[in-house]
Write a structure and sequence with these properties.
With about 325 residues, the protein is of the alpha+beta class. It has two domains: about 80 residues; about 140 residues, 2-Layer Sandwich (Nucleotidyltransferase, domain 5), CATH 3.30.420.10. The strands form three sheets. A five-stranded mixed sheet has the order 6-5-4-7-8, covered by helices on one side. Strands 1-2-3 form a three-stranded antiparallel sheet, with no helix packed on it. A two-stranded antiparallel ribbon has the order 9-10. Helix 2 packs across helix 8, helix 4 crosses helix 7 and helix 6 crosses helix 7. The model has no long low-confidence stretch (mean pLDDT about 90). The structure holds zinc ion. The site of zinc ion has 8 residues, from loops.
Length: about 325
C-alpha cells in the first residue's frame, strides 16, 4: 500500500481523525478557553447540519473543530484535500506550484493559490533562538533571486549586475543542520551585521566568503574566517561555505523551475517553505510522513488572511 492510499487523503472523517491526532496529541483542546479534558465530541449529522469533527467545551460551552485557530479555518476545501496539498508540498524537494496543485486537487487556481500560501505559513518557523549557541560553526552567505520589480534597472557598463534582483541573506548552523533566511534591501554591512548579531550567538564561529561587508565581523563572535572565492579557493579544511551553497542551489533550482514569478512581498514565504524542508530533511532524520505532520503542527495559531493572486505585487 502506498502512502497516498492512506484513508485520511480520501475520507473526510479519517482526515479529521488524523489532524486531531497530530494537533492534539494529548486529547482535544478548547481554542476558546484552553480547557483540556472536559471536552465532548458531537456526532456529525448532515441532516441537522452538525459538522464533522465538532467538539463542545465543558468549561466555556463553546463549540469548535480542530480547524479553529489554524490556517485551515474558514476554508471550504475539504480537510482531506488539504492533507493531500500538505503532503505534496512537504515531500517534493523543490516544492509544488499553485498550477500543479489546482490540476491535481481539482480545485480552482485561486483556491490552490490560497492553499499554497497558507501551507507556507504553516511551514514558517517561529524559532528565534540564536544559531551557533553551542559554540559551533555558522555559515553565512547571500544570494540573488529573480527580479525585484520595485527597482528600476539602470544601464551600467558592467552588464546586468545584481541591483535589480531580490537579495537574500541566509545562515546555516552546522551543528543542528538548520537554515534561517532574510530578504534584505541591500548587502551593505550596515544592513547585514545587525541581523547577524541578532541571530548568531557570541560563542559561534562564523564562516563567510571574502565579501567586504563581513570584514569586521570577528568582533563580537568567537571567530570569523572566510574563503577567498575570488582567488579560486573553495575551502581550507573546516573553513568553507559549501553547506550553505548546497542549500542555495536547491532553493534556486526550485524558484526557477516551479515558481517563476515571485514578488518581493511573498518572497519571505517561499524562503520559509524552502527553509522548512531543509530543516526537516531526510539527512536531519525527518522523513516524508513526519515532515507533513510537522507542517500540520505548524498550522496552529497562524490564522491569516491574504490578498488574492490577482493583486499587482503578488
Ligand atoms: Zn472552552
Amino acid at each position: 500500500m502506498s502512502i497516498l492510499s492512506r484513508p485520511y487523503f480520501h475520507n473526510e472523517e479519517a482526515a479529521f481523525a488524523h489532524v486531531e491526532s497530530v494537533m492534539w496529541p494529548s486529547g482535544p483542546e478548547c481554542p476558546h478557553c484552553g480547557c483540556v479534558g472536559r471536552i465532548s465530541k458531537i456526532k456529525a449529522n448532515p441532516e441537522k447540519r452538525v459538522r464533522l469533527g465538532l467538539h463542545k467545551c465543558g468549561d466555556c460551552k463553546k463549540q469548535f473543530t480542530v480547524k479553529v485557530g489554524t490556517v485551515f479555518e474558514d476554508s471550504k476545501v475539504p480537510l482531506h484535500k488539504w492533507l493531500q496539498a500538505v503532503y505534496l508540498m512537504t515531500s517534493s524537494k523543490k516544492g509544488v506550484s499553485s498550477h500543479q496543485l489546482y490540476r491535481a486537487l481539482e480545485v480552482t487556481y485561486k483556491t490552490a493559490w490560497f492553499m499554497t500560501h497558507r501551507i507556507r505559513e504553516a511551514m514558517r518557523s517561529g524559532d528565534l533562538a540564536p544559531f551557533g549557541a553551542d559554540g559551533g560553526v555558522v555559515e553565512v552567505d547571500e544570494t540573488f533571486i529573480g527580479n525585484d520589480r520595485s527597482i528600476k534597472p539602470k544601464h551600467t557598463k558592467k552588464g546586468r549586475g545584481y541591483a535589480h534582483k531580490h537579495k537574500v541573506l541566509s545562515l546555516v548552523d552546522r551543528t543542528t543542520g538548520r537554515a534561517r533566511n532574510f530578504v534584505v534591501d541591500d548587502l551593505k554591512a550596515a544592513t547585514l551585521v545587525p541581523i547577524l548579531r541578532e541571530n548568531i550567538a557570541k560563542e559561534a564561529t562564523i564562516y563567510t566568503d571574502e565579501a567586504g561587508q563581513y570584514r569586521k565581523l570577528a568582533a563580537g563572535f568567537a571567530g570569523h574566517d572566510f574563503v577567498r572565492h575570488g582567488a579560486g579557493e573553495y575551502g581550507r579544511g573546516e573553513v568553507h561555505t559549501n553547506t550553505i551553497e548546497g542549500y542555495f542551489s536547491v532553493f534556486k533550482r526550485g524558484m526557477k523551475g516551479v515558481y517563476q514569478h515571485c514578488g518581493k512581498r511573498h518572497l519571505h514565504r517561499y524562503m520559509a517553505e524552502f527553509g522548512f524542508r531543509y530543516d526537516n530533511r531526510s539527512a536531519n532524520g525527518v522523513e516524508d510522513v513526519e515532515r507533513a505532520d510537522r507542517a500540520l503542527r505548524g498550522a496552529r495559531g497562524k490564522r491569516l488572511k491574504y490578498q488574492g493572486p490577482d493583486s499587482k505585487t503578488a
